[in-house]
Amino acid sequence: MPPLPRTDPVELDPHPRTAVREPEYGFPRGLWAAMARRRPPGPPFSPRTWRSPLRGPWITSVFGAILLVGMPIIIITGLLSYIAYGPQFGQALPADVGGLRLPLFDWPTRPSWLFRLNQGLHVVLGLVLIPVVLAKLWSVVPKLFTWPPARSLAHLLERISLALLVGGVLFEIVTGVLNIQYDYIFGFSFYTAHYWGAWVFIAGFVVHVALKLPTMIRSLRSRSLRAELRTPLATTVPEPPDTHGLVAEHPAEPTLSRRGLLALVGGGVVLMAVMTAGQTIGDAVRASALLAPRSRSYGQGPNDFQINRTAETAEITPTVVAGWTLTLTGGRQPLVLSRQDLLGMPQHTAQLPIACVEGWSTTQTWSGVRLRDLAARAGVPTPANAFVQSLERDGAFNQATLQANQVLDPDSLLALRVNGADLSLDHGFPARVIVPALPGVHNTKWVSSIDLRSA
Amino acid sequence: MATMISGVLAGWRRFYGENPLHLLALLGCFALAGYAVSFAVQAPTPIQLGIWFVGAVIGHDLVLYPLYALADRSLLAGRRARRRRHARPSRVPATNYVRVPVLGSVLLLLVFLPVIIRQGEAAYEAASGLTMEPYLERWLLITGAMFLLSAVLYALRRVRSE
User: Which pLDDT does position A431 carry in this prediction?
Assistant: First the structure.
């Protein structure tokens, strides 16, 4: 079939659509009407500026539908992450969240990759949806400069809620992207800011979905996705005039088909996935995540895997750990064990991931003494929780409280060795905690004492 | 009774612009957002949060977006200029073979700017023991590879259209 002649919509329509629909203004009518008569002269306020022939309710709704699936997953994994940190012990940040959290429950230890999956989804999905968010914003940007800025109180309030939505999504992206790259330029607590920003975003997101879902469904039905995927550039024409202010009044000649735009955004998603997923999936494909901060190899040795906080930073030197002993408290009297004592106890080996809130993880084979064996040895076989302290003097994560299920899991270890070798100083020598599905930073390194607490 | 209710509703609609549920939903939204921000008393304060919210919106909508739009318009101006010189339109327009690698490269630059310009290097080194030294080179190589691939595809399309 020969290609259809390219039609230029501007030529086809010598009398461009004028505003036939007299806008209806709500209260205060006089104000909106007066503003409408005084349109600012700048180009963004002129409909002639917005000429992309691809903007329209259908394309906006396609991006909206993708985000409608993706955003709830990001929101829920984010809120689950808060629970994983153990808010019941005050070790999730921000500490006081009122009613703004999921119902409390003891974070499980099974499956052992639960936190790894949760954070991998949260961070990788957050990153791969950036191109979709940018495309969605591109598709609606003319509405930012709509004039008059509001037609009624309803319109004004809805636009304020959109500021929460757009400000919220951009704030969450910016703080998240900076945090995974260790760029703390914002100067405030990442956890706290990302948490409150999320709730402002959730407020905007829920109301936006509630108000726009019918429009989205109607718009998606207005065109067939299958037909769009078969439409080449030569036959791409703008969507029919709409009442939303998305379709250009004076569309330019298309330079990209609608399927081309979808492929472009999809390509951005794939590019982001390739650049980041490797640091979550694991060591076989880690190097593929070329730009991700945790894509680097340390080598092939038993201790050559991702380090979070080096011994040097924590001021742990061979001198500090010389003559090290572990103190167990909570029983009738404190019990002090040397590394030799620990190596003399039954050793257990477990393959467990260590997963960071930043969305990277690594699975290693750890061996050492079961935490529940230590609890029994200390005379507290069923503790309510356990408070672990590190030799490290400063640092936000030089201590952690473990739930009962985290102490008693058969794979929860005070690890002494990894991959058949002694732990390196960077990985927590003489001994570190490793618990299935626990946030990485709560697997305390350089453990000095464990307080086994009864209820 | 029914006519009275519909009359009141119509009056409300003229005054407010939408049905009452619209207002209810928005008030719920503002209450939730306000409740969340009321907890943010220090580090970040509500003012810090506000500055970063507004900054993010201005940065995207009023700085980055106009830059993309201007860059794209200049690309299209080149296309129109070519048309004025040649009677026949190009069989294989180069526009999208430039757009795609540029967008890919800019996306990666925007997202990975901190590691590329080594902005958080001290904290990264404290955590991982590594420097951010390779990232600029990696970004440049990925950018080069995307442009090269695009150029090869463009050449193939040209050859096939001969």
Answer: 98
Neighbours of A341 (CB within 10 A): 14
Question: Where does residue A46 fall: left (phi above 0), alpha (psi -120 to 50 degrees), or beta otherwise?
Answer: beta
Please tell me whether the peptide bond between A148 and the residue prior to it is cis, using omega within 30 degrees of 0. Answer: yes
Q: What share of chain A is helix, strand, coil (3-state, %, to 5)?
A: 45, 15, 45
Q: Give the separation between CA A114 and CA A438, rounded to whole angstroms.
A: 8
| Integer Cα distance of A354 and A112 in angstroms | 9
Average pLDDT over residues A379-388: 98
Backbone angles phi, psi at A137, to 5 degrees: -65, -40
What ipTM describes this predicted complex?
A: 0.95
How confident is the model at residue A222, as a pLDDT? 96
3 state DSSP class of A69: helix
Q: Residues B53, B59, B62, CA angle at the centre, nearest 5°? A: 115
pLDDT tens, A341-355? 999 999 999 999 999
CB distance B96–A127 less than 8 Å?
no
Condensed to tens digits (0 to 9), the pLDDT of residues A296-340 reads: 999 999 999 999 999 999 999 999 999 999 999 999 999 999 999
CB–CB of A268 and B95 under 8 A?
no
Which residues does chain B have within 8 Å of residue A202's beta carbon, measured at their own beta carbons? 32
Q: How far apart are CA A239 and CA A244, in angstroms?
A: 12
> Which residue in A163, A193, A207 is closest to B57 by CB distance?
A163
